[in-house]
């Protein structure tokens, strides 16, 4: 098996997804130019899976970074695996393609490798990312997620995306799509918050049984944005057990958290805008945790979510 595919997982549709991805979500205080620079560093280091979304509002910058790395000969377009997401304000079936086309236009790409439904909750359509009523509550929309899925299937057929999947779905929401009459393509993946404090073992088991790849975000804890994460939430990277295991292997805690996911068969996204850490994160391939390590890390689960989706 060539190196490219040995560090990839084969999706149910036959396409390959690299098992270690670079996440590009940044809070508003991070300049967009920094996201572009970090993406270029990630590609130089060896990352080939780049994860972004319409909601992140930085696809122009990420796209520019990808195109620069293609232009300078570092990678070819087919070496890269790029993910975008259809945000909740575009879940009406007639808006799905429009969302993907907006992303492609910003990226200046002909296709993406993966397009996923970002959240299973539809919101009022429009230009506002989080449309809210007078009380500050997000305004929802009534959409059958199966209709959204059908529209995404059409985007795949049109060649705008090679693979399709979902994000932030629980097993019941996944079943709605899997049991849909006339299903043409099943979701290749489900991207969810997943780390040692929220190891998603039941959802992982369910996804594996349906040949759906689990993709982990917030794998290193979280960027601790005050809108999303309470200030008293635990610091995953300060966890004593993880520190002990990291010291034993002469690794960073971040590398241990990433390696944990890789050994469970989870595709893992690592986000950092720091060059040293981006390099360190990619070295998660260079060591192995023992079965005892894995069991001990499993024991850290406390079903704790950093990302509060109060939608």
UniProtKB/TrEMBL annotation:
Annotated site residue numbers, Lowers pKa of active site Tyr: 85
Residue ranges of domain NADP-dependent oxidoreductase in the record: 20-301
Single GO term (MF): oxidoreductase activity
Active site: 56 (proton donor)
Keywords for this protein: NADP, Oxidoreductase
Binding site for substrate: 118
CDD domains with a match to the protein in the record: AKR_AKR1C1-35
Gene3D superfamilies the UniProt entry points to: NADP-dependent oxidoreductase domain (3.20.20.100)
Family annotation (InterPro entries): AKR, AKR1C, Aldo/ket_reductase_CS, NAD(P)_OxRdtase_dom_sf, NADP_OxRdtase_dom
Keyword Cytoplasm among record annotations: no
Pfam families membership: Aldo_ket_red
Domain of life assignment: Eukaryota
Family: Belongs to the aldo/keto reductase family.
Protein's recorded name: Aldo-keto reductase family 1 member C15
Organism: Nannospalax galili
Gene name in the database record: LOC103725892
